[in-house]
Amino acid sequence: MTTPVDQQAIQSEISNLLGSSEDNLIEQLGIRKFAVTKEPALESDIALRPTFDAQAMGPLDGVKALGRAVLVRWAKELQQLICGTDAASAADRAKLIDAFSASKVVGGVMLASGLIAIGCPAALAPIIAAIVISRFVGSAVEVFCEKSKVWVDELT
């Protein structure tokens, strides 16, 4: 994971997001994805704060569906990295495995940083990390690998 990221900005954003419900986070993920698709320069904004605009974005259910699709895509990437066995990713895997035994904020920062390092836009990574860490913090990595597959299937 060589991509430099602003750890302090990620920590602040994770702290802000962890109090939200998963449904609200998925909605915000869809809103952010819509915003960065419309204006790609926003991808690097860790604390992006777009608001829902029904006229521009369409029905809220569609925005939530977009958020779920984005979550599924990156949750699968995390599964492959964390639960995989390839030697090339061993160091990154070890760092991300530690996220599940850390506090929610520290674990969220670790996951968000890992997501950014594998190509997830910085504007989306903290939300995805907050959802995953809220669901799986304190779990053994084996539990994440087993239960996250079922969870991702339920999202699709």
Outline the structure in words.
By secondary structure, the chain is mainly alpha-helical. It has one domain (9-155). The protein contains eight helices and no strands. Helix 2 (22-38) packs antiparallel against helix 7 (125-136), helix 4 (60-83) runs antiparallel to helix 8 (141-155) and helix 6 crosses helix 7. The longest helix has 24 residues, at 60-83. It is globular, with a radius of gyration of 15 Å. The model has no long low-confidence stretch (mean pLDDT 90).
Topology:
Layout: H1 7-17, H2 22-38, H3 54-57, H4 60-83, H5 90-99, H6 104-117, H7 125-136, H8 141-155
Helix pairs in contact: 1-6, 1-7, 2-4, 2-7, 4-8, 5-6, 6-7
* Rg over C-alpha atoms, rounded to the nearest angstrom: 15 Å
**Care to count the β-strands?**
0
What is the ordering of alpha helices and beta strands?
Answer: HHHHHHHH
Helix content: 55-70%
Count of discrete alpha- or pi-helical segments spanning 4 or more residues? 8
Span from first to last CA?
28 Å
The main sheet comes to: none
Low-confidence stretches: none
Task: Tell the overall outline.
Answer: globular
**Beta-sheet strand percentage?**
under 5%
Domain count, please report it. Answer: 1
The secondary-structure class comes to mainly alpha
The average pLDDT score comes to: 90
